[in-house]
């Protein structure tokens, strides 16, 4: 038996149910318009951002209209959370899904048979069983609500084949209102949803997609753990949760492990886990305090937790739609939240190669390429990232949103044709056989064992790039990959290979504009678009450097500050130098100390950074 009584809401005015059951004084945005439409028996598609109040658009009319409201939901954990939330509101809600024990399933069916359930949450597979459909045909139905409706579309970023069968609801239940709801759908996906669900003649209710409370930023991935640590420190308030999206299952586990080592309550989540383990992790995240979830995109659909304060991506998402939905899990309470995207040239190249090699048809590949290039343009943007993102959903935002790193600190562009030509020339003269590290050594004039082995110190391009740092040349390479002038041989060892688009650049027929910070000579890059944040006690790398300094001082019988000052250690922990050249750029590191301590400092950075 259900443990909550059903409120007597049938026939009650929507405004009264909104206030009495849900405690809201008034509808927001287009909610009232949508509720009125459904109350009158209309169907339609609702597009609203995460946190925009989609659920009330079907919950209120389901309670007010006579009969049972049926909600189709793709995830068991999501259904359980929604049922629990409804019961907290005094609504008689229940769920039917494959993981429900037999005795509980029978109890739900008995409650349905005697009319004791007002809202039924059901998986698409269970709904489409003949027994379920036959049972529903004998009942009075208030409406069907198809949540996460982008799963219906083959163009959607979370296509679920079982959702395609939901189109039969239009023919078997023609007089029952059908609502499709999603937070993420581009124009092509919208039309596919309408076609598949028989909603082509029904209205589309669009809410604005902008989430101005989420500050979005993007950085080239250079020191992944250091960048994530700095972001969490800046974004977390110690109470809200956070999500780290990773490209592979192994990476989720590795990330959760080192975050736990840093003192965070970190979990991992991916599709390869046992169902029970996934449910436990989902519940821990939903009900814990400052929980950090390191996950693949298998995690997050329908997350209702309002106080997720930040979302970070350690790999490039495949489309703006998926990125938008994933970062939208932050700040559902309307309070400030942050999103960080880290990406590398290898991400872009790998995604392009996966599309090329996929068994999809040419039209699908074309669409996937277009979505990927839109995502690359957001990551590498020199203008407002939010505006580019919103345009993917048919909206046009202001030129300066004030809530992304580009608008907060606009990058300077300059004519980078000459550096581009130097790098492309080095790629060609070395035989298209080497990755960025070796090419940078050639350009910077470093006689390494590999450079000497292949006699690349005899090339005309040897040493022509001494004016730029290693990091700057990596930035040039990344941007040339982003614009398609270079490709990365993913199937081999990551060699850089020029494309047809490189020819006009080499000939001087095409100008290449680069972001100025990508080629700033020598200076380590500032993080988070707000300047480097100083490290302090509690930062693992800063503490490790202090321990190293203490040991070194004891060996020499010196005061610790004579080795390096705290300020210098803080700069090292923040900048995370990759080699002696980077270390030499940090204030307080003179030549003598560089020669004396570089090996020890860099070892600590590698092991603890």
What do you see in this structure?
Belongs to the helicase family. RecQ subfamily. The chain is an alpha/beta fold. It has four domains: 14-206, Rossmann fold, CATH 3.40.50.300; 214-408, Rossmann fold (3-Layer(aba) Sandwich); 413-519, Arc Repressor Mutant, subunit A (Orthogonal Bundle); 540-608, HRDC domain (DNA polymerase, domain 1), CATH 1.10.150. It is built from 26 helices and 17 strands. Strands 3-4-2-5-6-1-7 form a seven-stranded parallel sheet, sandwiched between helices. A six-stranded parallel sheet has the order 8-13-12-9-11-10, with helices on both faces. The radius of gyration is 28 Å and the shape is elongated. The model is unreliable at 1-7 and 520-535 (pLDDT under 50).
Question: What are the salient characteristics of this protein?
Answer:
6-stranded parallel beta sheet, Rossmann fold, elongated, alpha/beta, Arc Repressor Mutant, subunit A, 17 strands, 609 residues, 13% strand, 26 helices, 4 domains, 7-stranded parallel beta sheet
Helix and strand composition category: alpha/beta
Helices, by number, come to: 26
Query: Which architecture name of the largest domain does CATH use?
Result: 3-Layer(aba) Sandwich
How much of the residues is beta strand, in percent?
A: 5-15%
N- and C-termini, Cα separation: 55 Å
CATH superfamily of the largest domain: P-loop containing nucleotide triphosphate hydrolases
Give the CATH topology of the largest domain: Rossmann fold
Are there runs of 5+ residues with pLDDT below 50, and where? 1-7, 520-535
What integer value in Å does the Rg equal? 28 Å
Helix content: 40-55%
> What topology, given as strand order, has the largest sheet?
3-4-2-5-6-1-7
The chain-level mean pLDDT equals: 85
Protein name: DNA helicase RecQ
Domain HRDC: 535-609
Enzyme class: isomerase
InterPro entries: DEAD/DEAH_box_helicase_dom (IPR011545), DNA_helicase_ATP-dep_RecQ (IPR004589), DNA_helicase_ATP-dep_RecQ_bac (IPR006293), Helicase_ATP-bd (IPR014001), Helicase_C-like (IPR001650), HRDC-like_sf (IPR010997), HRDC_dom (IPR002121), HRDC_dom_sf (IPR044876)
């Amino acid at each position: 038996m259900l443990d909550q009584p059903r409120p007597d809401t049938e026939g009650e005015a929507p405004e009264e149910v909104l206030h009495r059951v849900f405690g809201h004084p008034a509808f927001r945005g287009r909610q009232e318009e949508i509720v009125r439409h459904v109350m009158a028996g209309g169907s339609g598609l609702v597009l609203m951002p995460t946190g925009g109040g989609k659920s009330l658009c079907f919950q209120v009319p389901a309670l007010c209209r006579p009969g049972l409201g049926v909600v189709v939901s793709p995830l068991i954990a999501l259904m359980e959370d929604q049922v629990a939330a409804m019961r907290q509101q005094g609504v008689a809600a229940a769920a039917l899904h494959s993981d429900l024990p037999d005795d509980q399933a029978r109890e739900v069916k008995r409650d349905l048979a005697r009319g004791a359930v007002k809202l039924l949450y059901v998986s698409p597979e269970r709904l489409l069983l003949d027994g379920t459909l036959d049972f529903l045909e004998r009942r009075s139905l208030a409406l069907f609500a198809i949540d996460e409706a982008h799963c219906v579309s083959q163009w959607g970023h979370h296509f679920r084949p079982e959702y395609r069968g939901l189109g039969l609801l239009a023919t078997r239940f023609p007089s029952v209102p059908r609502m499709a709801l999603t937070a993420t759908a581009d124009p092509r996906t919208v039309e596919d949803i309408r076609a598949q669900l028989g909603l082509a003649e029904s209205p589309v209710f669009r809410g604005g997609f902008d989430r101005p409370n989420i500050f979005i930023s993007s950085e080239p991935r250079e020191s992944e753990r250091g960048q994530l640590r700095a972001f969490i420190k800046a974004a977390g308030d110690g109470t809200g949760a956070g999500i780290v999206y990773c490209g592979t299952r192994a990476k989720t586990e590795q990330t959760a492990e080192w975050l736990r080592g840093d003192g965070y309550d970190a979990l991992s989540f991916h599709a390869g886990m046992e169902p029970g383990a996934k449910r436990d992790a989902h519940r821990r995240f939903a009900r814990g305090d400052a929980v950090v979830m390191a996950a693949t995109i298998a995690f997050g659909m329908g997350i209702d937790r309002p106080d997720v304060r930040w979302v970070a991506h350690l790999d490039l998402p495949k489309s703006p739609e998926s990125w938008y939905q994933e970062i939208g899990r932050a700040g559902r309470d309307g309070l400030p939240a942050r999103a960080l995207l880290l990406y590398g040239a290898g991400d872009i190249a790998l995604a392009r190669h996966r599309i090329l090699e996929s068994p999809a048809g040419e039209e699908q590949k074309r669409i996937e390429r277009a979505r990927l290039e839109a995502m690359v343009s957001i990551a590498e943007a020199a203008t407002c990232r939010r505006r580019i993102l919103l345009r993917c959903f048919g909206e046009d935002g202001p030129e300066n949103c004030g809530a992304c790193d580009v608008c907060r600190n606009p990058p300077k562009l300059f004519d980078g044709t000459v550096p581009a030509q130097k790098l492309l020339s080095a790629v060609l003269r070395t035989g298209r056989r080497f990755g960025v590290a070796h090419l940078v050594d050639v350009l910077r004039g470093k006689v390494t064992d590999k450079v000497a082995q292949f006699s690349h110190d005899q090339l005309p391009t040897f040493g022509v790039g001494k004016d730029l740092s290693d990091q700057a040349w990596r930035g040039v390479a990344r941007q040339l990959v982003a614009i398609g002038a270079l490709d990365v041989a993913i199937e081999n060892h990551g060699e850089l290979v020029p494309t047809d688009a490189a020819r006009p650049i080499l000939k001087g027929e095409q100008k290449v504009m680069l972001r100025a910070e990508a080629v700033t000579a020598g200076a380590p890059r500032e993080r988070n678009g707000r300047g480097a944040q100083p490290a302090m006690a509690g930062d693992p790398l800063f503490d490790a450097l202090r321990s190293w300094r203490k040991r070194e001082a004891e060996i020499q019988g010196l005061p610790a500050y004579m080795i390096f000052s705290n300020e210098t250690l803080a700069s090292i922990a923040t900048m995370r130098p990759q080699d002696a050249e980077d270390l030499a750029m940090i204030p307080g590191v003179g030549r003598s100390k560089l020669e004396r301590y570089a090996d020890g400092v860099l070892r600590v950075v590698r092991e603890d950074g």
